[in-house]
Amino acid sequence: ADPEAVAEARAHQDRLTKPRGALGALEEVAVRLAGAAAASPPPIPAPAALAIFAADHGVHAQGVSPWPQEVTQQMVGNFLAGGAVANAFAAQVGATVTVVDVGVAADLPPAPNLIVDKVAYGTADLSEGPAMTPAQAVSALEAGIAVARRLVDQGARCLVTGDMGIANTTASAALICAFTGRDAAEATGRGTGVDDETLTRKVEVVRRALLANGLAGPAGGRSRDAGDGRAPDGDVVAGPVSPGGPPAGDVLTGSALRTLAAVGGLEHAAIAGFILGAASLRVPVILDGVIAGSAALAAAALAPDAVDHCVAGHRSAEPGHALALAHLGLRPLVELELRLGEGTGGLLAHPLVCAAVRVMHEVATFDSAGVTEKGA
Amino acid sequence: ADPEAVAEARAHQDRLTKPRGALGALEEVAVRLAGAAAASPPPIPAPAALAIFAADHGVHAQGVSPWPQEVTQQMVGNFLAGGAVANAFAAQVGATVTVVDVGVAADLPPAPNLIVDKVAYGTADLSEGPAMTPAQAVSALEAGIAVARRLVDQGARCLVTGDMGIANTTASAALICAFTGRDAAEATGRGTGVDDETLTRKVEVVRRALLANGLAGPAGGRSRDAGDGRAPDGDVVAGPVSPGGPPAGDVLTGSALRTLAAVGGLEHAAIAGFILGAASLRVPVILDGVIAGSAALAAAALAPDAVDHCVAGHRSAEPGHALALAHLGLRPLVELELRLGEGTGGLLAHPLVCAAVRVMHEVATFDSAGVTEKGA
């Protein structure tokens, strides 16, 4: 973040015709985006473009979701036909919708808003070994970077992450454990709605995945931090990142890329690339839910400054999401217990982000409006 | 609320291509608005119209605000010139802005978006006796009803409450104490930013106001409820309302109208009328912050069903606001520590409310989209 732009943005906020700090968390959003853009005021982050990265997961075979795997493909059809919630929300906020097949387990018919950049027909089962090869993870990252560039070339001034992939909250939980040092039981949730028995199985699958990929410390023996979402010093597993600082490095098992490949999904890797692409173009990217949050952990481990360009759109009902956001140092804007994915929570936040930035462009100062400031 | 429309809306939500309940609190918003409109799906609540009710307060003389009283008038000028945060947020969500002078302590020059329906040049000092006569409160209520009708006649399909009045959080705190039975220390906050000394004085002023107007029980001796914001039975002060039920009635000091007149502001009374007007026209009204929340307590005491048409736009940093919303049974949509007023929090919520309703109109069902439902 550019310190001069941050300072100028803060000073400008204090000159506007409102009590200091009266816009709460929205002032911080505007200041952060000024720092990211190295400009105060930062550009209005509109229009927005949603990219829904779709892929399938070998771990689906472990019974971690009540939904059949073909729902990934069916929902892609629904997005392309304009019938999903993401389409309705995108229409509400004036965002375009692009679907990117980076790993659906079927060949999809061509469609105008579909980009096919398929790396594989789904991942391998992460509970038995690496979900992806490092080369596959790199290909998916590159696919995400390319989509970011393409959407910005087409005029987007804000990117929104979306995802579709039956079983992808299992991969997210494993990524969150690997990058934050949390236990599987803390990071794993009910996804789109699993029962108690399936949740228990899902936690076990995440635990097995960490073990199978050399990402777990001594079972259950890890101390916990005080709740800020960061692993305690000396207890890092796979390159946890301090916001604004360098990654803590390869400690036990290797690089962030290998961690992403081991327990991520193809859409997670692509979203991580999408974030890196947005950051390199200095365009803000609104993160959706737990899939994006876990992908952002990977992006941040690869390039810590990328977090400066991220806005946490919402906090989902998935417990791992809050852990990921705390680790990234991001505060979510919308907290309405959404647990849908697709980019829906990110889209809802877009008007809030625009409103925050618009204030910096349009609101009068005390001087210009002839409004008396408060007494000492 | 219409029970058939509520049931139909819930059933429709469960047929849409998303896991059940995956839109969290937004599903409940859509269901409530269906009940209020007696139609499923309910009409899309757009375009929106913001009405900023402006008035001054005799209690300003007690030193409850660091801002000079003339800032009310100056900010009206800022709204009319398009330079305030409310204008920027209204532009973001496509809402019109109308300012209504129901009690500014000065004559305002005519302007295209200004309605002058002045009941008085500010209220009397509520800490020494009634702020308004009952007749003044009725006039302000009628002014608010008329504005609701006018904006809906002009095409608005959603109303948003706004306010401007230096010292109006003091009146709000007194109304909240009177209608919920809470203590002044619980309901009184820092408003637009008072220091510790002023806050202490403000709490004392609210306490004196309740005593001077016969709205306080034995000082400090009132038992508290378990936190749902309602006064315990037998301890009602001035017609607390149970959402959906009749007001608990005139217990100690008389009617809701007399309470509103005693410790309210002219803008509070007008906003209560605005809510009643919206409800009678079956148009949803998004409540802004603590001023609207306290006015809604009065509206609900006068006509409990009016709450069905209300959406709580946000929860402000003011502690009384949470108490008012809990008493009304409303969940706020945005929680970003805003403390500006003007309608800013209500405007931010408008795209969320639209998104919630749009889902009911536009999203495909599992059947229509050919998407497989989850396994048993």
Automatic annotation (TrEMBL), chains A, B:
<protein>
    <recommendedName>
        <fullName>Nicotinate-nucleotide--dimethylbenzimidazole phosphoribosyltransferase</fullName>
        <ecNumber>2.4.2.21</ecNumber>
    </recommendedName>
</protein>
<dbReference type="InterPro" id="IPR003200">
    <property type="entry name" value="Nict_dMeBzImd_PRibTrfase"/>
</dbReference>
<keyword id="KW-0808">Transferase</keyword>
<dbReference type="InterPro" id="IPR023195">
    <property type="entry name" value="Nict_dMeBzImd_PRibTrfase_N"/>
</dbReference>
<feature type="active site" description="Proton acceptor">
    <location>
        <position position="342"/>
    </location>
</feature>
<dbReference type="GO" id="GO:0009236">
    <property type="term" value="P:cobalamin biosynthetic process"/>
</dbReference>
<comment type="pathway">
    <text>Nucleoside biosynthesis; alpha-ribazole biosynthesis; alpha-ribazole from 5,6-dimethylbenzimidazole: step 1/2.</text>
</comment>
<comment type="function">
    <text>Catalyzes the synthesis of alpha-ribazole-5'-phosphate from nicotinate mononucleotide (NAMN) and 5,6-dimethylbenzimidazole (DMB).</text>
</comment>
<feature type="region of interest" description="Disordered">
    <location>
        <begin position="216"/>
        <end position="248"/>
    </location>
</feature>
<dbReference type="InterPro" id="IPR036087">
    <property type="entry name" value="Nict_dMeBzImd_PRibTrfase_sf"/>
</dbReference>
<dbReference type="Pfam" id="PF02277">
    <property type="entry name" value="DBI_PRT"/>
</dbReference>
<feature type="compositionally biased region" description="Basic and acidic residues">
    <location>
        <begin position="222"/>
        <end position="233"/>
    </location>
</feature>
<keyword id="KW-0169">Cobalamin biosynthesis</keyword>
<comment type="similarity">
    <text>Belongs to the CobT family.</text>
</comment>
<dbReference type="InterPro" id="IPR017846">
    <property type="entry name" value="Nict_dMeBzImd_PRibTrfase_bact"/>
</dbReference>
<dbReference type="GO" id="GO:0008939">
    <property type="term" value="F:nicotinate-nucleotide-dimethylbenzimidazole phosphoribosyltransferase activity"/>
</dbReference>
<keyword id="KW-0328">Glycosyltransferase</keyword>
